[in-house]
Design a protein that fits this description.
The protein is an alpha+beta fold. It has one domain (35-291): Beta-lactamase (3-Layer(aba) Sandwich). It is built from 11 helices and 9 strands.
């Protein structure tokens, strides 16, 4: 049956409507964001958070697979606090791996040189003449952040030898004028060196990573992350300072360092670190799921 003019117009209008509906339903094909654009967004989010916090912060993040980096004040010097125990204990591990020292080697406690207040148990239990294996001192330095244990190790290993080791890893801010300071980037270098050591020396390296993952202090970087996520990290605090440097074992893993100065209290500083860590974690998960394109420039 032939279509009359009225029916033909109706069919044409129906066809146009179907086409318009199909176009409207089609998802927008916006160009993917580049890694540099996403990194800039992360930096803006972090800057926005830091702008409302008292004190000064330094941040360094590195994807351990792509090498992507984001930093804020990453090359500025900050008090290292107990984060400095990481390169000391790493140096000891290297000496043992090279056969230049044994874990059973013992160090004698000297109160006039080794005593220090603050974290740890040896300040209460050590007596002059008592001896401790370097393995015990390494474990206490990391898991309890024991100041006396670290001072004993530093004396035994030689502070200049430890400093030379730190420089060999690429650090430049190493005890300037005797001050215990570092930068976020250089603290990150030490954490990357721990991971490299574990790849070359699985038994001792994984033990060090396990000590770092099971410290009694676990509120900074892992504070707002999933509780079953492994984070090997070292926190440090002194008056006005809250620091944390760690390896977060997502897939792929990443390094995050947050140093601070001028915070009102360590507790407040670590709460800020946990918020920073969550922002970086969410960003990293998006990056690792392939939503980024291209590579980040060096920070």
């Amino acid at each position: 049956m032939a279509l009359n003019r009225h029916n033909l117009v109706r069919l044409l209008l129906l066809a146009v409507a179907v086409v318009l509906l199909a176009v409207a339903a089609k998802p927008s094909l916006a160009p993917p964001r580049t890694a540099a654009e996403d990194a800039a967004t992360l930096k803006r989010d972090l800057d926005a958070l830091l702008s409302g916090l008292p004190g000064r912060y330094g941040i360094w993040y590195r994807d351990l697979v792509t090498g992507a980096e984001v930093g804020i004040n990453q090359n500025d010097s900050f008090p290292a606090a107990s984060c400095t125990k990481v390169p000391t204990v790493l140096y000891l591990n290297e000496l043992v791996a090279q056969g230049r020292m044994k874990w059973t080697e013992r160090v004698t406690y000297r109160a006039d040189e080794d005593y220090q207040e603050g974290d740890g148990v040896l300040r209460y239990s050590a007596v002059d003449g008592a001896t401790y294996s370097v393995r015990t001192l390494a474990n206490l330095s990391i898991t309890l952040s024991d100041n006396v244990a670290h001072r004993m190790l530093l004396r035994h290993l030689g502070k200049e030898n430890v400093a030379g080791f730190m420089r060999s890893l690429g650090a430049k801010v190493v005890y300037p004028d005797g001050r215990n300071v570092t930068t976020p980037r250089e603290m990150g270098i030490y954490m990357m060196a721990v991971l490299d050591f574990a790849r070359r020396n699985p038994e001792d390296g994984n033990r060090l990573l396990d000590d770092l993952a099971n410290s009694i202090w676990h509120v900074g970087i892992p504070g707002a992350l999933p509780p079953d996520l492994r984070v090997s990290h070292k926190e440090g605090e002194i008056t006005g300072v809250a620091n944390d440097a760690g390896i977060v074992f997502t897939d792929p893993p990443y390094v995050l360092v947050v140093l601070s100065e001028g915070v009102r209290s360590p507790d407040e500083g670590f709460r800020a670190i946990s918020r920073i860590s969550r922002i970086v974690y969410d960003y990293h998960r998006g990056a690792s799921r392939g939503t980024l394109t291209g590579a980040l420039p060096e920070g």
